[in-house]
Structure formats: C-alpha cells, structure tokens
C-alpha cells in the first residue's frame, strides 16, 4: 500500500442530531433499500424508486416524526455537508464590483457552511431595500470589499444567483473605511470609521446578538 | 465564528496568529511539517518515490530509455525533469496545458539537477557518441497544500537513489544494444541536493514551509537548495518583499540543518526497504 | 513470451489465481485534503486514484450550464511511468478521451444530478501503475471518491473484466493476459439493481460463449461490490467514532 494509514479528517460541522439519537445508528450506503413509501416519507439523502425508499448517501439513517404528518420522515445524514445556495437561504458574500444598477459579489458561505469555491451572486438595485426602491444609489449602499448577508431570491439567468438585502437583518456586516480601518455601524444607512471619525454610507444589517 | 472571520478577513486572521509567534496549524515559525517517504512502490518505473510533506503529496517516477547523445556532447546522457500540477491536486489548477507555475517548477528542477551535479551525465553514457541513457523524471503532485518545490526535490532525490538500470552492451555485429535484464546497477549519486522554502509575510515575519493558505497570503518567497558539503547550489527568490542580508543568512543556516535531516531520512528509508 | 501458458494444466494462472478469482483489492477513502472526495484503490498491481471536486460553479464554457441538473466532468489520465514503455502523452490522446467520455456517461447515469442545478461536479482519475483492468480500477476508485465527497448516488458502480482464453472464461484480466490477444469484456454495473451501465468488448467472441463470460463478469462486479461496501461502512463508522470521541 502506498499511502500510509492516515486518520480520517475531522469534519467541521458537528451534527447534534447524531449525538442525541444514539440507539445503535444504522449505517447505510448508496443504493440500500430502506423502507417502502407506505411506511415512511422520503427525506434528504434518499430517493424513491418503484415504491421504495433508497439511500443515496453513505451515512447514518435517521427516522423522525414531525407534527402534522402521520408518516415519519426517513433521512440519511453525513457529517460533511455539501452546500449549494438554495432559494431562501441566507448567504454571506463579498462584494466584488459595484455599478449604478447592480453590484456583483462572490458568495463565500451558505448558512453556516463555508464554501470551498465561491459562487457568483448579483444584487440588483431594486432588491437592496424594501422601501423607496427607486431612490437607491448603489454607491451609497455597497463598496467593493464589503462583507454582506443576503438571501437567495432565485437562481438567476446569467450564471449569477440573484440576491436580496431587502430586510432589516440583511446588508453590510463588515466594511473597511477609506482609511483602512474596520467601521462601526451608526444607523441603518451609515457607518463610522474609528480612525478618522468620518461617516460613510452603507446599507447596514441589523445584527441580532447571538448566543454562541 | 472563527471560520467566518477567516473567510472574511484572512490577512487579519493570520496576522493575529503571527503576533503570538505561532501559525494557524499550531506550528512555530521555523517548524517544518512532518515528512514521510515511500520508495519503490511503482514497479513499472525504474525508480519511484512518494513523498508527503504534511498534506502536500508528490509522486516521482523515473523511466530510462536509450538514445543517441548530441554531437556537441557525445559523452553525456540526459536527465529530463518534468513537474505536473494536475487539476486533481487542487481546485486552483484547471484542465489544459501546463500552468505557468508547473513550468517554473520544472525549470527550477532542471537548474537544480544541473547545478548540483546530483548525477554526472558522463555516467549515463554507454558508448561515446553512439548510445546513452536518458532519464525521464516525472513528478506529479497529488495533493497541493503549499511548498511543492521542496517536496519535488525530495521525491526526485529519493527516486534517483532507487533507480536500477540494466546493464547494456552493444552487439558488435549488428551494432544494436543488448539489454541484460538480470544485471541491474544503481545510479552513482554524486551529490544530494535538498531544498527549503521560506515565506515572507507583511515585510516582517519569516516562516518556513508555507502551506497553501500561507502561500496565498505571503508577500514574498525564498527557496534555498544545499548539498551535503555545505554548498549552496541554487537560490530562487522570484521578486516579492526585499530581505536583508542577515535574514538571508538565517535562512541559509536553517536550510543547512533541514537538509541534513532530510538526507538522513532518505537513507534510513532506503536501508529499511528490502530489495 | 511465446510458449507461456496462460492457464497451467492444474488450472492456475500466471499469478497463481484460479480462473474465477479476483485479484486482491485494497482501497482507502479520504486520502487527500484538498479534494472534496478522494479514494485510492489497488487491484493486484493496478494502482488508481480518484479525486472529486464539487458541486461548484461551472467555470469554462458557459454553454455547458444546465438549468435543472449538474454537469459531470471526468478526466482520465495515466501517469507517464505507469506502463512498461514510457507514455509520452498522459492525456489528450484518443484512448484517454474515450475513457473520460465513458466515465462521464457512467457517472451521469448514477449521480442524482437534479439536486444541484447549474453547478459542476469534477471527477479526476489517475492511473499510477497499469497492469490490466485500468478502466475498472478507475470506475471503482471514482465510486468511492464520489461517496467520500457526499454526492448523492443512486447506487454503487462496480466494474470488472472477464476474458475467454483457451476455452475457459477468466475473471479480472491482468496485462499479460490482455496482451495474449484473447477476447475480453469490460462490464460496469450497479450491483444492487443488477443493471449494466457500460459494456465494452475487444476482439472476437463466439456468440455461444458470450453468456458464460458475461455471467462471470457480473459475478465479479458483485464480488468487487462486497469489498467496496465493507470499506465504505468501515470508513463511515470510523469517522463517526472519531467525531463523537472528540
């Protein structure tokens, strides 16, 4: 054997579900038949074929009940999660260029997972704010290099995901001033540089204090 | 949240570690990653070696062929190195013709082989002016986590030490070469070059053996190649931040100690392999 | 090599195997850090490794983007030192491109691409040492790498060769047996659903013998599946044990 025995790499995202449901979890592999559609519903990590539910990932099978549904849901969970931006998910993006009508950005994280390779996103002028959509000036909302929180609106047409910051909790979370210092938010539309004291316009996100 | 800070402001994240004289993977500034060596695993090649420097993995395979020497140098054989950085080793390499980086590293390998005199080209000559060996050294990176130059040099040296060439005689009547597969001789390795790469960050911090992330953030790079008689055979500093003479001397001293460790490792591994 | 018996009188082949015996399979998943999924496999002396990147944004060729599914891109390459004679063109020659295309078609049928619209999945396969059954080793390595990357698949894909030499079907042909010139069949199939994904045949084979050889090849695929399955289950349990222990 060429490759010496390395320990498998520890995954980044800890899945808490696995640790709470420790009744001898069942390992399943792609193509393994789990249940028939009469007994359970197919959840993520499974697919349906000819009336039976099969696994499509290599991981642990987990069956859970949800309110309002009589059948429990079968899903297969893996430690490492692949992330692709889906409609409605919150993403973290870095602004790459700003023009009068839109701003282009590179999506670096989807929800809590950091992507290896950034996807491209686009924020149009009318999706920046919820109110006074036509009086938006892009240069007063974003600058290249800002880190923004946005929601995926749709998959877009020209290879970019369409993003929106038209909510209070979305917008710029981290920005560097022209002097190069990290700015402190003052209100929903401007931030202040601690070095020079000057204020710059941004569409600021109202970040809720999170419990770590 | 540390992962978010790292993607949002990688430079700042890295700076905070360096202020404490440590790096994100826990190493000190002068510490080199764990090196493992596996020699002679590819049986179709005349000599082979697989080297892992931390996560960076390079496999070197040497194939020998017979050819005619050039008219200008009738007593010399050839050693042809080639470094391949395929898209499978990292997402930053795309399919297509060899990237600029691969070509630069290949050229650096050729310079190191020539300058250090690791193999005397006269040893590769069988019949003067008529027949000689050409050694194709193909190094392929399988996992790119920074510092591919050091890993390539180690793999090349280990593979060359592993090479067994069959004895070749020329049949007088027909003039064609006769290869005796039963009798195999190792190469005569004259010198053992070992490379050490340093990275410069923020015009201020100097660290050895950069990983992929550190390479992207570094403002300058320096590679020093030394041989066992404390001779420097190659220094490669492609632009980047300027270094003072004293820092350069520190780098050279560090390279000399590192080279000793690597040579010992290679010799130990070769002795432990049953032939 | 004239006069070398592929099968001896006692029924043993050159490497000491019986006619329906597979070569020893060693596999390892998650060998590389940069790739999303990686695997290394040794079938006898054939050594292959596979790395998977994705799903990620489609880069070159905007025309390739599919709005409802992911694009699968495969590249097959043999190292220059993998064969007895040095291979001067590791990729780009017709045989490699044909193998790449076969791999792509195989995996497009198996990966659930509808879950990742407008993205691309890259599968890179590299042969380090070739001793017959190159395509099979690639397919098996790629299956393990895709599972390691966590990309949903409908089933495993296992591949095996079977040949017909000296009037008896042989399983898992090595390079020496391949160069003897006898016909051999390469089969890639999904073992649970017993569906054949790819079938390739060389040389001429009498129609009467076809069924025997095909049966042997499908049996071989199922044997390979048993080995790979055990590796995957061990790997999943190991990584889980590591995670809950920390």
TrEMBL record, chain A:
Keywords attached to this entry: Cytoplasm, Exosome
Location relative to the cell: Nucleus, Nucleolus
One GO CC annotation: cytoplasm
UniProt-recorded Gene Ontology molecular function terms: RNA binding
CDD domains hit by this protein: S1_CSL4
Residues annotated as domain Exosome complex component CSL4 C-terminal: 114-155
Domain Exosome complex component N-terminal: 27-63
GO-annotated biological processes: RNA processing
PANTHER family: 3'-5' EXORIBONUCLEASE CSL4-RELATED (PTHR12686), EXOSOME COMPLEX COMPONENT CSL4 (PTHR12686:SF8)
Entry protein name: Exosome complex component CSL4-like
UniProt source species: Branchiostoma floridae (Florida lancelet)
Gene transcribed to yield this protein: LOC118408923
From TrEMBL, chain B:
GO terms assigned for molecular function: mRNA 3'-UTR AU-rich region binding
Cell compartment(s), UniProt: Cytoplasm; Nucleus, Nucleolus
UniProt main location, coarse: cytoplasm
Residue span, Exoribonuclease phosphorolytic domain: 31-166, 193-256
UniProt GO BP: exonucleolytic trimming to generate mature 3'-end of 5.8S rRNA from tricistronic rRNA transcript (SSU-rRNA, 5.8S rRNA, LSU-rRNA); nuclear mRNA surveillance; nuclear polyadenylation-dependent rRNA catabolic process; rRNA catabolic process; TRAMP-dependent tRNA surveillance pathway; U1 snRNA 3'-end processing; U4 snRNA 3'-end processing; U5 snRNA 3'-end processing
Keyword annotations of the record: Cytoplasm, Exosome, Nucleus, RNA-binding, rRNA processing
InterPro entries for the chain: ExoRNase_PH_dom1, ExoRNase_PH_dom2, ExoRNase_PH_dom2_sf, Exosome_comp_Rrp42_subfam, PNPase/RNase_PH_dom_sf, Ribosomal_Su5_D2-typ_SF, Rrp43
SUPFAM superfamilies: Ribonuclease PH domain 2-like, Ribosomal protein S5 domain 2-like
GO terms for cellular component: cytoplasmic exosome (RNase complex); nuclear exosome (RNase complex); nucleolus
Protein family per UniProt: Belongs to the RNase PH family.
Record-given protein name: Ribosomal RNA-processing protein 43
Organism encoding this protein: Branchiostoma floridae (Florida lancelet)
TrEMBL record, chain C:
Residues annotated as domain Exoribonuclease phosphorolytic: 21-152, 155-219
The keyword Zinc is annotated on this UniProt entry: no
Subcellular location: Cytoplasm; Nucleus, Nucleolus; Nucleus, Nucleoplasm
Annotated Gene Ontology cellular component terms: cytoplasmic exosome (RNase complex); nuclear exosome (RNase complex); nucleolus; nucleoplasm
GO molecular function, one term: RNA binding
Chief localisation class: cytoplasm
Keyword terms: Acetylation, Cytoplasm, Nucleus, RNA-binding, rRNA processing
Record's keyword annotation contains Lipid biosynthesis: no
InterPro entries: ExoRNase_PH_dom1 (IPR001247), ExoRNase_PH_dom2 (IPR015847), ExoRNase_PH_dom2_sf (IPR036345), PNPase/RNase_PH_dom_sf (IPR027408), Ribosomal_Su5_D2-typ_SF (IPR020568), RNase_PH (IPR050080)
Pfam families, A to Z: RNase_PH, RNase_PH_C
A GO biological-process term: nuclear mRNA surveillance
Subunit structure: Component of the RNA exosome core complex (Exo-9), composed of EXOSC1, EXOSC2, EXOSC3, EXOSC4, EXOSC5, EXOSC6, EXOSC7, EXOSC8 and EXOSC9; within the complex interacts with EXOSC2, EXOSC7 and EXOSC9. The catalytically inactive RNA exosome core complex (Exo-9) associates with the catalytic subunit EXOSC10/RRP6. Exo-9 may associate with DIS3 to form the nucleolar exosome complex, or DIS3L to form the cytoplasmic exosome complex.
Family assignment from sequence similarity: Belongs to the RNase PH family.
Entry protein name: Exosome complex component RRP41
